[in-house]
Amino acid sequence: MLAKLTSKNQLTLPKSVTQAIGPAEYYEVQARDGQIVLTPVRIQRGDAVRAKLAQLGLGEQDVADAVAWARAPVAAAPGAKGSRARTTKRRS
Questions:
Q1: Where are the domains of the chain?
Q2: Model confidence, pTM
Q3: How many CB atoms lie within 10 A of CB 30?
Q4: Environment class of residue 23 by beta-carbon count within 10 Å: exposed (0-12), middle (13-18) or buried (19+)?
Q5: Which of 23, 24, 72, 85 is disulfide-compatible with 40, CB 3.0–4.6 A?
Q6: Can you give the pLDDT of all 92 residues of the chain as single tens digits?
Q7: Cα distances (Å, whole numbers) of residue 11 to 8, 20, 89
């Protein structure tokens, strides 16, 4: 079977192939001996988020700081009509 690589670097997998392997939203991708190998990975969304945070080197305190920042009051930017700027505090 053929799958075409689009200009956006995307592949559409044939339905018969995806049905044969079962439902999977994520795939591990490897280049092996001139071939692209896709292996279905069944992970929970929480696991995916934790893996991405670890990959970015972000810890619990970074997440807590981001949540606090997102929940901070929004104040009008000086001299700007209708625009909104988030106030931030820097940690020492």
A1: 45-86
A2: 0.44
A3: 10
A4: exposed
A5: 24
A6: 899 999 999 999 999 999 999 888 889 999 999 999 999 987 777 888 888 899 999 999 999 999 999 999 887 666 656 555 555 555 55
A7: 9, 17, 44
